[in-house]
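Sample entry (272 residues):
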Amino acid sequence: MQYEPIKRSLGRFFAGSLFLRKTLYFLLDLLLLRTWHVKKALRKITSQFPGEASVLDAGSGFGQYTWRMSRMNSLWKFKAIDINKEQIDDCNIFFGKAGLSDRVSFYTCDLTTLNEVNCYDIILSVDVMEHIEEDMVVFQNFYKSLKNNGILLISTPSDKGGSDVHGKQEESFIDEHVRDGYSITDITEKLSLAGFRTIEVGYTYGKPGNISWRLSMKYPIKMLNISYLSFILLPFYYLIFFPVSIILNIFDLCLTHKTGTGLLVTARKQEK
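Predicted structure, serialized as C-alpha coordinates:
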Protein backbone atom coordinates (compact mmCIF):
# COMPACT_ATOMS: atom_id res chain seq x y z
CA MET A 1 0.00 0.00 0.00
CA GLN A 2 1.47 3.36 -1.03
CA TYR A 3 1.36 5.87 1.83
CA GLU A 4 3.69 8.64 0.61
CA PRO A 5 1.46 9.79 -2.29
CA ILE A 6 -1.42 10.22 0.15
CA LYS A 7 0.82 12.20 2.52
CA ARG A 8 1.88 14.47 -0.35
CA SER A 9 -1.74 15.11 -1.31
CA LEU A 10 -2.69 15.91 2.28
CA GLY A 11 0.30 18.20 2.67
CA ARG A 12 -0.55 20.16 -0.45
CA PHE A 13 -4.20 20.48 0.54
CA PHE A 14 -3.38 21.85 4.00
CA ALA A 15 -0.43 24.01 2.88
CA GLY A 16 -0.48 27.79 2.60
CA SER A 17 -3.14 28.73 5.11
CA LEU A 18 -2.24 29.03 8.79
CA PHE A 19 -5.74 27.93 9.72
CA LEU A 20 -5.67 24.85 7.49
CA ARG A 21 -2.22 23.84 8.73
CA LYS A 22 -3.24 24.16 12.36
CA THR A 23 -6.36 22.17 11.52
CA LEU A 24 -4.18 19.42 10.06
CA TYR A 25 -2.08 19.31 13.24
CA PHE A 26 -5.23 19.18 15.38
CA LEU A 27 -6.65 16.30 13.34
CA LEU A 28 -3.37 14.37 13.43
CA ASP A 29 -3.22 14.82 17.20
CA LEU A 30 -6.69 13.31 17.50
CA LEU A 31 -6.47 10.55 14.89
CA LEU A 32 -2.95 9.17 15.37
CA LEU A 33 -2.69 7.07 18.51
CA ARG A 34 1.11 7.24 18.34
CA THR A 35 0.75 10.99 18.91
CA TRP A 36 -1.12 10.31 22.15
CA HIS A 37 1.69 8.07 23.41
CA VAL A 38 4.45 10.44 22.24
CA LYS A 39 2.77 13.43 23.90
CA LYS A 40 2.49 11.50 27.17
CA ALA A 41 6.20 10.66 27.04
CA LEU A 42 7.12 14.24 26.11
CA ARG A 43 5.26 15.58 29.14
CA LYS A 44 7.57 13.51 31.35
CA ILE A 45 10.64 14.72 29.45
CA THR A 46 9.50 18.33 29.71
CA SER A 47 9.77 18.16 33.50
CA GLN A 48 13.46 17.22 33.14
CA PHE A 49 14.21 20.22 30.92
CA PRO A 50 12.16 23.09 32.37
CA GLY A 51 14.54 25.75 31.08
CA GLU A 52 16.37 26.17 27.79
CA ALA A 53 16.95 23.05 25.71
CA SER A 54 17.95 22.16 22.19
CA VAL A 55 15.67 19.68 20.39
CA LEU A 56 16.10 17.71 17.17
CA ASP A 57 12.99 16.44 15.41
CA ALA A 58 14.60 13.65 13.37
CA GLY A 59 12.24 12.86 10.52
CA SER A 60 9.86 15.77 11.00
CA GLY A 61 7.30 15.00 8.27
CA PHE A 62 4.47 17.53 8.38
CA GLY A 63 6.11 19.22 11.39
CA GLN A 64 3.31 18.35 13.80
CA TYR A 65 5.62 17.17 16.59
CA THR A 66 7.82 20.25 16.34
CA TRP A 67 4.64 22.33 16.53
CA ARG A 68 3.46 20.42 19.59
CA MET A 69 6.83 20.66 21.37
CA SER A 70 7.21 24.36 20.58
CA ARG A 71 3.98 24.95 22.52
CA MET A 72 5.08 22.80 25.47
CA ASN A 73 8.06 24.99 26.35
CA SER A 74 8.70 28.46 24.94
CA LEU A 75 12.40 28.28 25.90
CA TRP A 76 13.21 25.25 23.77
CA LYS A 77 14.86 25.72 20.38
CA PHE A 78 14.30 23.29 17.55
CA LYS A 79 16.03 21.91 14.52
CA ALA A 80 13.78 19.69 12.41
CA ILE A 81 15.15 17.54 9.59
CA ASP A 82 13.61 15.31 6.95
CA ILE A 83 14.70 13.78 3.67
CA ASN A 84 11.64 15.21 1.90
CA LYS A 85 12.58 18.69 0.64
CA GLU A 86 9.00 19.60 -0.29
CA GLN A 87 7.83 19.05 3.28
CA ILE A 88 10.83 20.93 4.68
CA ASP A 89 10.16 23.97 2.48
CA ASP A 90 6.48 23.88 3.39
CA CYS A 91 7.24 23.70 7.12
CA ASN A 92 9.68 26.62 6.95
CA ILE A 93 6.96 28.73 5.34
CA PHE A 94 4.34 27.75 7.93
CA PHE A 95 6.54 28.23 11.00
CA GLY A 96 7.70 31.56 9.60
CA LYS A 97 4.09 32.72 9.22
CA ALA A 98 3.37 31.43 12.72
CA GLY A 99 6.13 33.66 14.12
CA LEU A 100 8.35 30.81 15.29
CA SER A 101 11.28 31.12 12.88
CA ASP A 102 13.43 32.61 15.67
CA ARG A 103 13.53 29.25 17.48
CA VAL A 104 12.41 26.71 14.88
CA SER A 105 14.24 25.82 11.66
CA PHE A 106 13.81 23.00 9.14
CA TYR A 107 16.52 21.44 6.97
CA THR A 108 16.71 18.68 4.38
CA CYS A 109 18.92 15.90 5.73
CA ASP A 110 19.45 12.16 5.46
CA LEU A 111 19.77 10.76 8.99
CA THR A 112 22.46 8.33 7.85
CA THR A 113 24.69 11.35 7.09
CA LEU A 114 23.81 13.37 10.20
CA ASN A 115 27.13 14.65 11.54
CA GLU A 116 26.74 16.77 14.67
CA VAL A 117 28.42 16.38 18.05
CA ASN A 118 26.98 17.20 21.50
CA CYS A 119 24.29 19.50 20.10
CA TYR A 120 20.93 18.36 21.49
CA ASP A 121 19.27 17.72 24.83
CA ILE A 122 16.37 15.84 23.21
CA ILE A 123 16.03 13.90 19.96
CA LEU A 124 12.59 12.79 18.82
CA SER A 125 12.14 10.26 16.03
CA VAL A 126 8.59 9.16 15.24
CA ASP A 127 7.80 6.53 12.58
CA VAL A 128 11.21 6.90 10.97
CA MET A 129 13.42 3.91 11.80
CA GLU A 130 11.16 1.45 9.96
CA HIS A 131 12.07 3.35 6.76
CA ILE A 132 15.87 3.18 7.20
CA GLU A 133 17.91 0.09 6.36
CA GLU A 134 21.12 1.36 8.01
CA ASP A 135 19.56 1.79 11.43
CA MET A 136 22.77 1.25 13.43
CA VAL A 137 24.38 4.17 11.59
CA VAL A 138 21.43 6.37 12.58
CA PHE A 139 21.48 5.23 16.22
CA GLN A 140 25.20 6.04 16.39
CA ASN A 141 24.57 9.45 14.81
CA PHE A 142 21.85 10.14 17.38
CA TYR A 143 24.23 9.22 20.20
CA LYS A 144 26.96 11.55 18.93
CA SER A 145 24.47 14.37 18.39
CA LEU A 146 23.12 14.26 21.95
CA LYS A 147 24.66 16.14 24.84
CA ASN A 148 25.59 14.13 27.93
CA ASN A 149 22.39 13.11 29.79
CA GLY A 150 20.39 13.87 26.65
CA ILE A 151 17.32 11.79 25.86
CA LEU A 152 16.29 9.95 22.69
CA LEU A 153 12.58 9.23 22.21
CA ILE A 154 11.55 6.82 19.43
CA SER A 155 8.15 5.58 18.26
CA THR A 156 8.28 2.70 15.77
CA PRO A 157 6.38 -0.48 14.83
CA SER A 158 7.06 -3.66 16.81
CA ASP A 159 7.56 -7.17 15.47
CA LYS A 160 4.26 -8.21 17.06
CA GLY A 161 2.14 -7.19 14.11
CA GLY A 162 3.71 -3.82 13.34
CA SER A 163 3.11 -2.67 9.76
CA ASP A 164 0.17 -5.12 9.93
CA VAL A 165 2.48 -8.11 9.44
CA HIS A 166 1.46 -11.16 11.48
CA GLY A 167 3.34 -13.95 9.71
CA LYS A 168 6.40 -14.69 7.59
CA GLN A 169 4.39 -14.82 4.39
CA GLU A 170 2.70 -11.44 4.92
CA GLU A 171 3.97 -8.16 3.56
CA SER A 172 3.98 -4.74 5.21
CA PHE A 173 0.80 -2.70 4.92
CA ILE A 174 3.05 0.26 4.06
CA ASP A 175 5.25 -0.40 1.03
CA GLU A 176 7.83 2.19 2.11
CA HIS A 177 8.82 0.21 5.24
CA VAL A 178 12.15 -1.61 4.99
CA ARG A 179 11.43 -3.63 8.17
CA ASP A 180 8.16 -4.77 9.65
CA GLY A 181 9.12 -3.85 13.20
CA TYR A 182 11.60 -4.27 16.04
CA SER A 183 11.53 -6.69 18.92
CA ILE A 184 12.21 -5.19 22.33
CA THR A 185 15.45 -7.19 22.52
CA ASP A 186 16.59 -6.10 19.06
CA ILE A 187 16.17 -2.36 19.51
CA THR A 188 17.53 -2.47 23.08
CA GLU A 189 20.69 -4.27 21.93
CA LYS A 190 21.22 -1.91 19.00
CA LEU A 191 20.83 1.20 21.15
CA SER A 192 23.21 -0.31 23.75
CA LEU A 193 25.80 -0.96 21.05
CA ALA A 194 25.44 2.65 19.93
CA GLY A 195 26.32 3.72 23.49
CA PHE A 196 22.94 4.46 25.09
CA ARG A 197 22.10 3.62 28.70
CA THR A 198 18.91 3.60 30.79
CA ILE A 199 16.92 2.20 27.87
CA GLU A 200 13.19 1.77 28.45
CA VAL A 201 10.95 0.08 25.87
CA GLY A 202 7.21 -0.46 26.11
CA TYR A 203 4.46 -1.67 23.82
CA THR A 204 1.86 0.66 22.34
CA TYR A 205 -1.08 -0.21 20.11
CA GLY A 206 -2.37 -3.04 22.26
CA LYS A 207 -5.74 -4.63 21.47
CA PRO A 208 -7.73 -1.37 21.75
CA GLY A 209 -5.15 0.60 19.79
CA ASN A 210 -4.90 -1.98 17.05
CA ILE A 211 -8.66 -1.86 16.47
CA SER A 212 -8.55 1.94 16.51
CA TRP A 213 -5.70 1.96 13.97
CA ARG A 214 -7.70 -0.20 11.58
CA LEU A 215 -10.75 2.02 11.86
CA SER A 216 -8.99 5.39 11.76
CA MET A 217 -6.02 4.69 9.46
CA LYS A 218 -5.86 1.34 7.65
CA TYR A 219 -9.33 1.28 6.10
CA PRO A 220 -9.33 4.98 5.08
CA ILE A 221 -5.87 4.60 3.49
CA LYS A 222 -7.06 1.53 1.58
CA MET A 223 -10.03 3.55 0.36
CA LEU A 224 -7.75 6.38 -0.82
CA ASN A 225 -5.44 3.95 -2.61
CA ILE A 226 -8.44 2.74 -4.60
CA SER A 227 -9.52 6.26 -5.55
CA TYR A 228 -8.86 9.81 -4.36
CA LEU A 229 -12.61 10.35 -4.75
CA SER A 230 -12.77 8.65 -1.37
CA PHE A 231 -11.74 12.01 0.12
CA ILE A 232 -15.38 12.99 -0.40
CA LEU A 233 -16.61 9.99 1.59
CA LEU A 234 -14.09 10.22 4.45
CA PRO A 235 -15.92 12.93 6.47
CA PHE A 236 -19.01 10.70 6.61
CA TYR A 237 -16.87 7.66 7.44
CA TYR A 238 -15.15 9.45 10.33
CA LEU A 239 -18.45 10.83 11.57
CA ILE A 240 -19.39 7.24 12.37
CA PHE A 241 -16.09 5.70 13.45
CA PHE A 242 -14.15 8.63 14.93
CA PRO A 243 -15.93 8.55 18.35
CA VAL A 244 -15.22 4.81 18.58
CA SER A 245 -11.52 5.39 17.82
CA ILE A 246 -11.25 8.09 20.48
CA ILE A 247 -12.60 5.75 23.16
CA LEU A 248 -10.25 2.97 22.05
CA ASN A 249 -7.29 5.39 22.08
CA ILE A 250 -8.05 6.40 25.66
CA PHE A 251 -8.02 2.74 26.74
CA ASP A 252 -4.77 2.10 24.88
CA LEU A 253 -3.08 5.11 26.47
CA CYS A 254 -4.13 4.19 30.01
CA LEU A 255 -3.44 0.44 29.90
CA THR A 256 -0.09 -1.35 30.21
CA HIS A 257 0.27 -3.76 27.31
CA LYS A 258 2.00 -7.16 27.43
CA THR A 259 2.23 -6.97 23.65
CA GLY A 260 1.38 -4.48 20.94
CA THR A 261 2.08 -3.50 17.36
CA GLY A 262 4.03 -0.39 18.35
CA LEU A 263 7.04 0.40 20.53
CA LEU A 264 7.82 3.53 22.51
CA VAL A 265 11.51 3.81 23.39
CA THR A 266 13.43 6.21 25.61
CA ALA A 267 17.20 6.05 25.94
CA ARG A 268 19.72 8.31 27.66
CA LYS A 269 23.26 9.24 26.75
CA GLN A 270 25.38 8.85 29.86
CA GLU A 271 29.08 9.22 29.26
CA LYS A 272 31.47 7.78 31.83
